Amino acid sequence: xxxxxxxxxxxxxxxxxxxxxxWAVRGMSRAAAISLARRKIRVNSVYPGLIDTDxxxxxxxxxxxxxxxxxxxxxxxxxxxxxxxVIFLLSxxxxxxxxxxxxxxxxxxx
Length: 110
Hints:
The protein is built from three helices and three strands. The protein is mainly alpha-helical. It has a single domain, classed as Rossmann fold (3-Layer(aba) Sandwich). It has a three-stranded parallel beta sheet with strand order 1-2-3, sandwiched between helices. Strand 1, helix 1 and strand 2 form a beta-alpha-beta unit. The longest helix has 21 residues. The two termini are 23 Å apart. It holds the Pfam family adh_short_C2. Keywords: Oxidoreductase. Belongs to the short-chain dehydrogenases/reductases (SDR) family.
């Protein structure tokens, strides 16, 4: 399973290397899903958006508000919300899923 930021779901201005590596991870995940399916190995990707963790605490309140203005749900997600998706993907409830790309970003990549 790949967990990478939702910024990999769209281009990011001025972040050529970052965007290239995120798109590479998406391609590798898809190729792995195709290659490993016959061995009953599933490969899915989770792309969290702005999640309320220590990682985002370095931003100023103004920068955080600016980022939240681009999130249709107008809030940060929680690590529990991301974990719930990961737990689902690890469970037998997702037994027929492979190659899925799931964004957990409050609609930011829409």
